[in-house]
Task: inverse folding
């Protein structure tokens, strides 16, 4: 059986998601900076932007338990979807080609699921950052009319 290709982004997300002290530290620093800038500029837009960043970490923690990230977790996930035990009439008569075909289907399905999960996380993070910080780009594109 071929090796499952685990996207690197899932390893990175797993690293962060398994270290809640890191998440809380990053959020506390980001919140502090956002509050200082908001108070000094008399504009809570920066605090609003912090909400988008907090959303990213919240989603990361929410999905981190359901996304397999190691080869062992992925193999367990695949075996759950496609068990080796083929109960039924004459299950032991499965040919070598059928076993190979089942194995290839498992690998294909696992790679498709992992790529979709990784892409979903990246799109969520990118979209949230655009939502949070796009208003700050206004002065670069439009002049303010008083």
Result:
């Amino acid at each position: 059986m071929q090796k499952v290709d685990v996207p690197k982004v899932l390893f990175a997300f797993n690293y962060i998601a398994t270290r809640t002290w890191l998440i809380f530290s990053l959020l506390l620093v980001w919140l502090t900076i956002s509050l200082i800038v908001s108070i000094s500029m008399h504009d809570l837009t920066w605090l609003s932007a912090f909400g988008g960043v907090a959303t990213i970490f919240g989603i990361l923690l929410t999905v981190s338990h359901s996304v397999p990230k190691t080869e062992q977790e992925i193999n367990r996930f695949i075996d759950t979807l496609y068990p080796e035990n083929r109960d039924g009439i004459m299950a032991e008569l499965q040919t070598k080609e059928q076993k190979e075909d089942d194995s290839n289907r498992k690998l294909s399905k696992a790679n498709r699921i992992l790529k979709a999960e990784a892409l979903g996380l990246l799109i969520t993070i990118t979209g949230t950052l655009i939502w949070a910080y796009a208003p700050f780009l206004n002065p670069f594109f439009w002049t303010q009319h008083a």
Observations:
- The two ends are 68 Å apart (CA to CA).
- Residues 91 and 124 are 44 Å apart (CA to CA).
